[in-house]
Design a protein that fits this description.
Layout: E1 14-26, E2 29-40, E3 50-62, E4 67-78, E5 90-100
Amino acid sequence: MDNNPLPLKCSAAAYAFLTYWNYQPTPLDNISLRLEALDDTAGQRTGAEATYYDVGIGLQHWLSPQIEMRPEFTQYWATAPAFANGTKRQESVASGDIILHF
């Protein structure tokens, strides 16, 4: 065990861009498009030194004033193998949640 009282320091830079585009086709529905880019120059934040890009589309639907449903599909890309324990450069993720407001 290290008894050094000094905190660890990190000078690894990371740069990111994130934008959401939203459209409300009905009062109960909202469609979101997410565009993101992250340059993890040293792999300090993600575990793999790479530039990451993703595009996600999601739906927010109110079933009632208390119940909100949010499915989403996102496609991720990396400039180096970064997914599946460093064996893949892209990953698809389908996710969602149901939120109860009370």
